[in-house]
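Office hours follow-up: a student asked to see two folded examples consecutively, so here they are.
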Amino acid sequence: MAHRPLLSLLYHLCSDRRLRHVDRLFPYKSAEAFERDLAFLRERFTPVGHDQVVAHFEGRFELPPDAVEISFDDGFSECFSVARPLLLEYGIPATFFCVTNSIDNASMMFRNKISLCLNRLEELSTGEQARSLAWMGSELGVVFRSLAEAMRWVDGLQHDDLDRIDALCARLDLDIPSILRDERPYLTREQIRQLAHDGFTLGAHTCNHPRLERLPWEQARREILDSCSAMREITGERRVPFAIPFGGLELPRDSLASLLAGEDGISLVYDTNDLMRDRDFFVNRIQVDTPRGSWRGRSNLGLLIGRARALEPLRALRRRVLRTTGS
């Protein structure tokens, strides 16, 4: 069966609050803006769930015209407290991808620690900023000429730099265990099971949210398999989908295909390359977190989807050039 086009949209969360562990990483919509999106999708598209998408990819189901799928990455608690009630009200299915080591607020993702550090650095007095930059030079081995330069460096840290990130959190008096305990930024097992009971799909998003393409393949493989195993254990599902953190354009497709061929517990792989056509086991998504363009009570999804469609020929050409040059 030829695959009918599927529009897949990616959110992380929606909230009316300032979330300091997120707001330096990406913008996000208010509950009202997200509700406008749902109304827009109900009017212009046909929302479908993950099981329908899987059945379509396996040739057992034909998607309806203008099919659209919603998913959320990272497993933030607002997926339960804010998005869930609105999704249920509008009768729209969704898939939630969780970073499994953060479930039950057992640990904080490194990027969320970075967001907290960036906010704290910016709020320090001029004297304390200078002392923090001096500390970075002596303790972390990096010298900066300005706070802006230091913040760019902090923003670029990766999961492999976790010791440096944790040292910076301690230097800035960020009590991560207390934040996890008091603010509860991530979904709990009970919330995940309730979402599954509600009919939503729960998937895996690695154990620690690293950039998989920077890891040795065996380590990347373990991040994928262990997180999927954890989600199957929590939900009781035989198969769960998997979403690649940051985007997996550089991940070897043959290695992923071999992994899926030998692992029946993964249904589909989700990525973030907009409308890119990929292997049959891939679903690429358009990120639609930004509230920009949402005004006067109108959803901005039409603008974001239109932009993705307009830019896809140029993006496809750029991908071909990169593959040809090996860049």
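And the second, which I mentioned at the end of office hours:
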Amino acid sequence: MKLLSSSCAQSSKTQYDSSLRRWEEFCVVKNVNPLSSDIRIILDFITHLYGLNLGYSAINTSRSALSLILPTIEGFTVGSHPLVRRAMKAVGRQRPPRPRYSSTWDVTKVLNLFRSWPINSNLCIKFLTLKLVGLLALISAQRVQTLKAIKLSSVKSSEDIIEIFISTNVKTSKPGRSQPCILLVKYPHDEKLCVVATFLEYLLRTESYRLHDQLLLSLEAPHNEVTTQTISRWLKQLLAEANVDVSMYKAHSFRHASTSKAYQEGVSADVIFAVAGWTPSSKTFARFYNKKIDERCTYATDVLGARR
């Protein structure tokens, strides 16, 4: 089972771990072989998960995990077997999958925060780091996993453009698919919002203690490479600084906010898909990312005319 699961990306393995543990525990109780494709047992397992009050997404993850480790049934993978699909359809009707966010925050909140800060050279390393991570997340629309994977050895820069090639396997890495390439372009209209200027200042400030190839380093000595959890915490802290409701919006919401704002500003879906790493036929953006910007918090100030 461990060998089969190793064919997945690390993020998928982590996602499948709890599902496979539940399956093994279920099979121990039922006294059945966890590597046997008995359709009755699989349907019982789906019913068992439903009885645990799990949502559609969690149960569907278990279906994918079983498809990975179990033999086919009557020529079908476990996940595509007609009875399994029918069971999942029933789960979907009772507990339809819902995206985490029904709306998203306005990126101008974070941009206005950056405008209120001192120039880069006068920022402490903590706020310079927060600013760089925030601009990278907004401009690249990439996942935290990809931001962590940025290495200086894979950076190519010219006067106005920085190209960052991601060599590490990420969620979208597949045979025959190009690896992500993040393009940072100089923004001459406002240097406080220029990701290129922020990137270069960060390199200058970390040069004296840099011992690692990874771009983002921890704030405290010995300044090791950071984890995805640390980057997520930085992004969430940035949202809090910008007065965005962090009880509702998490680090991944930067991807939602960036792509939604780009679409509303007239950027074509093809360009958004290319930047964010979705295939041209992907329905992910339409289903989960193209959100209305939540402006309820500004309603009162609009009525009172405070923003005029």
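Two things to take away from it. The mean pLDDT is 83. The CA atoms of residues 273 and 279 lie 6 Å apart.
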